[in-house]
Structures are given as C-alpha cells and as structure tokens.
Amino acid sequence: MIQFQCDYNEGAHPLIIQRLCDTNMEQTVGYGEDQYCEEARALIRKACEREDVDVHLLVGGTQTNTTVISHTLRPYQGVLTAVSGHINVHETGAIEATGHKVLAIASEDGKLTASQIEVAMQAHLNEDGPEHMVQPGMVYISFPTEVGTVYNYAELEKISTICRKYSLPLFVDGARLGYGLCSPESDITLPQLAKLADVFYIGGTKVGALFGEAVVITNEALKRDFRYSIKRHGGMLAKGRLLGIQFATLFTDNLYLKISQHAIDEAMHIKKALKSKGITFLMDSPTNQQFPIFSNAQLEVLTKEFLFSVWQRIDEEHTAVRICTSWATKCENVDKLISAIEQL
C-alpha cells in the first residue's frame, strides 16, 4: 500500500539520522542548553535575518500550540482563529484544557482576514459590559492553513497591522511552514514572517525531522519566562540535543526549503493529473495537501493501492479526500498514482 494520507509517514532525512548517529556517544548538558541547540538557534536567527529573536525547541505541534497560547493569554482571555483552525478541530480540546476559550470565526478557505478580526474586536468592545465575556487576547493562524491555502504578504501584513492596533499578539502555526514558503502562490519569506508575527514556529515533524518544532518569539513581552511555560507543559526535553541536532541539520545549506520544495513539486504533478482527468476539488490548494473529490466508485479503485485521508463526505456518491505529499515522497510512487488517476 502506497501512503499519501499525511506528511509524517517517514522517519527523518538521512542527513539527520547520520548526524544523530555520529554524535550519539557524545556527552552534552541537557534541557536545550547544549552546543547543538545553540547551533540550531544561531542558524534559525540567521535564516530569519534577526539576531534579537528567542528560539525554543519543542517536541510536537499540539504541545507547542498549548504552550505558546497559555503563556501568552491572561486567565480571562481566549484566542481568535478560523473555524477550521487546528486548535479548534484537531487538538482534542487541548487549548480549552488550559483554561482558555477558542474563539472560532467562520471561514470558507481556512483563512482569517483583518476585517474579521476587527469585527470580532469591535463586537467585544461594544458589548454591554464586555468584562462578562471572554476577551479576545491573541490571534492564531496557520501557514499554510489546515486546508492547504496560504496567505499572501498583503493579507498577512493587514492582519499584523490590525493585531497591533488592538494589542493582540499574532501567533502563526508553522507545522507545515516549509511547504507554505515553497508554494507557487506564496510571496512570503521567513524574514518577512519574522517581522509580521509576534511568535511563530517552524515545523520539523512534518518537514524532515523525526520530531520537533522551533518556536521563534519576536515580541519582547512574550520572551520573558517562556522556559518556565515549556517546563510546566512537559515540553522541556532532557535530551534536548536531539532537537538541536535535527534543526541544525535542517538549517544547514538551506536543506529545510530544498526538501519542502520537493513536496510541492510532487503535489503539483498530482494536481495537474487530477485536473486533466476532470476531477474537481473541495479546496484549491497550492501546497502539499490536495483535496480532490472522487466518486465512491473511483475511490474504491484507487484505495486498492493507495491510502488517503477521508476529509469530507460530499454526498452519498462522492467523497473528498486529502492527498498529501512530503519531503520524502518518492517520485515513482507519484508516477504510479498519476497513472492510476489517468486510468479512472
């Protein structure tokens, strides 16, 4: 069975495995204070073109989201997000478990707009006694979004501007950041993101690492005591070197973006084949996640050889699935899938 259901099926890039093996018997201090974590932090700062950012290495996405959000918010505050945002639909109430409400806003394409944030803030401020309501305390967006769409620079700049108008920290979930940056529709660079966001993270779990996410904090107010929050949420890995080695490798010789580009290239090959066959899409995604709508009969044929994620039942006869490529997707497997699509 050839798997296309997610972008973390494989282990890690061979260069990471090699470096982990090469350094395996070295003795280092723990908890992210070793030389490899410092190397990773220095390389990430260089990539962001900012020496003033704090970089922290955590293990996984949900852990990172709960740590950042609970660290940022006051007890009476919630976080604004698109209704399809990962923290709203795929994290088992993790944010609510920290005592903070997820304030979901309707979105057809997975994205928030600056005007939606403005409306939400004005609605709260114009309440008869706003202190009786959960106060919006930050904004969470994903790049790319949960449905594979991306913000352009103008959109993100407007969001950043409105967030600063209302003193709302902007948090960008970058679990698939490499795939967003390499999208043919993206005009955003890592240094630009570092200017517009108050805090964001660079996903490793889905982009070449065994595990790990690199949190980049640009807002001075959020930097204070963040390590306390990491520890409190169980995110302070004793063998922190394992994270440092991985991110140092990913940010050497532009490896992170090189392997991300591979995933995009293969996804675009699949998208072209689907369009040529007349297959429609639930969402027009320019990233490594594609959401074609198949008839159930077509899906029955394809799933004999390929594994996808069922995304949404369209009607009794049609189903939208997610086809996901990754940094490790084999070209020959993509060719097999395209051949199968052409024969439908």
Form type: globular
For CATH, the homologous superfamily of the largest domain is named as Type I PLP-dependent aspartate aminotransferase-like (Major domain)
Please provide the count of β strands: 13
Task: Give the CATH architecture of the largest domain.
Answer: 3-Layer(aba) Sandwich
Largest sheet: 7 strands, mixed
Give, in spatial order, the strands making up the sheet with the most strands. Answer: 2-8-7-6-5-3-4
| CATH domain class of the largest domain | Alpha Beta
Q: Write the CATH fold name of the largest domain.
A: Aspartate Aminotransferase, domain 2
The rounded Rg comes to 20 Å
> Helices and strands: which structural class?
alpha/beta
Encode the helix/strand succession as letters. Answer: EHHEHEHHEHEHEHHEEHHHHEEHEEEH
Helix fraction bin = 40-55%
Distance between the termini: 18 Å
Total number of helices: 15
Strand-residue fraction? 15-25%
**How many domains would you count in the coordinates?**
2
- Summed over residues and divided by their number, the pLDDT gives a mean of 96
Ranges where pLDDT stays below 50 over 5 or more residues in a row are none
Question: Can you walk me through this structure?
Answer:
Helices cover 41% and strands 19% of the residues. The chain is an alpha/beta fold. It has two domains: 2-7 and 256-342, Aspartate Aminotransferase, domain 1 (Alpha-Beta Complex); 14-254, Aspartate Aminotransferase, domain 2. A hairpin with a 5-residue loop joins strand 9 (280-283) and strand 10 (289-295). Helix 1 packs across helix 12, helix 6 (114-125) packs parallel to helix 7 (153-165) and helix 13 runs parallel beside helix 15. The longest helix is centred in the C-terminal third of the chain and has 22 residues, at 255-276.
